[in-house]
Amino acid sequence: MSxxxxxxxxxxxGVMGRNLLLNxxxxxxSVIGFDKDEAKTTALETAATAGTTVKGVPDLEEMVQNLKxxxxxxxxxxxxxxxxxxxxxxxxxxxxxxxxxxxGNSHYTDTxxxxxxxxxxxxxFMGMGVSGGEQGARTxxxxxxxxxxxxxxxxxxxLESIAAKVGGVPCVDYLGKGGAGHYVKMVHNGIEYAIMQxxxxxxxxxxxxxxxxxxxxxxxxxxxxxxxxxxLIEITADIFLQxxxxxxxxxxxxxSDKAGSKGTGKWTSQDSMELPVAVPVIDTAVAMRTLSGxxxxxxxxxxxxxxxxxxxxxxxxxxxxxxxxxxxxxxxLSYAQGLAMLFQASKDLNMDIPLPKVVSVWRGxxxxxxxxLEVFSKAYAKNADLSNxxxxxxxxxxxxxxxxxxxxxxxxxxxxxxxxxxxxxxxxYFDAFRSERMPTNLIQAQRDxxxxxTYQRTDIPGTFHTEWGQx
Length: 471
Known about the structure:
The protein is 54% helix and 8% strand. The chain is α/β, with parallel strands linked by helices. The chain folds into 2 domains: 8-174, Rossmann fold, CATH 3.40.50; 185-433, N-(1-d-carboxylethyl)-l-norvaline Dehydrogenase, domain 2 (Orthogonal Bundle). The strands form 2 sheets. The protein has a 7-stranded mixed beta sheet with strand order 3-2-1-4-5-6-7, with helices on both faces. Strand 4 (72-75), helix 4 and strand 5 (99-102) form a beta-alpha-beta unit.
């Protein structure tokens, strides 16, 4: 095999790595993949589309030597130490100007460290979030690269060719310096946690209202044909029709209620507190997944605290309409909180994240793609430096049109004992955000009372302390 033959390389040929590499090959690029597991290198070649140039090798040096310079290669290996191990193996094999992309779910601080470390060697390192699952990787993912801007110039033609397209526009763009790519993907995943939790709470309310799985399917299918059109609503409609292959039941009814997670939602919650930026819907979604794991305790508590009698007095049609509006409202709030976090992180962490491009990249290919992102795109077109999308007049008009029904649904959930924490926290955030004056003046007084932490006044500038209890 002659040197400098292949356009693009992939390290790690699991499902995501293999599918992404095959996608690149389908768009006219010659590709080579490395994996220690020869069964995976064979599977890569076997799955290749006829007429494409695809090679799998079990030797890293062979892969690197057979890439055109500047070399362009991606890693799709587990986050953490495995990424550092691959980088250590690559360093003796690469040259200045080569481009290395980490396409896994690395924490942005690790990416920032690697960008700085490899800068000294002259190797261009980029962290890139990839969303869309294995199907998206094969047919068109949403990709969120960040790091070295010159490196992006080298890989842009490849990434734009394989990305999902919306209106002919590729769902990939350069999203900022340092660890920006993985930071944007982390927040994407936090929003994903929030919306999934909100959908599950809406399902719980509708199910308690008496809707069958068939009616739930019909409801979500109808919602997906309107304002709430999105990938997550679409797949939820499908889920309600799926029959179990082991029983006569619907599959959703026999799936355990202990939800798994890979930790990226938790990262969003933790890092929001470091800024700090309030993302209570995401926080609640993370907490609810944790609570779902307390199965034994929940079974005991259910016996101690039985449900009260239902007091709902809504027709099925009214219930569906009101829950639709509440879910729509809370979904907007989830995006608003995530985008506000990106706005602040961009400034505080010096990443220069372009929010209009973030919203554009999320419009297709990714798990949180939805029609709402078109509304947000218009908001950023008016003001690219918008600190919170709730401050846009068009978004405000939408929010005001559904907040009334949201209040009714939150009230209903509270009366019915349905655990709807994400819906509730979305409304609480909204009411706090729109409050010209919050009751935190009392907290400031309390802090000064017990800890002499001082306070500011509304009428006189400066910092004050009072000897409390002297009256």
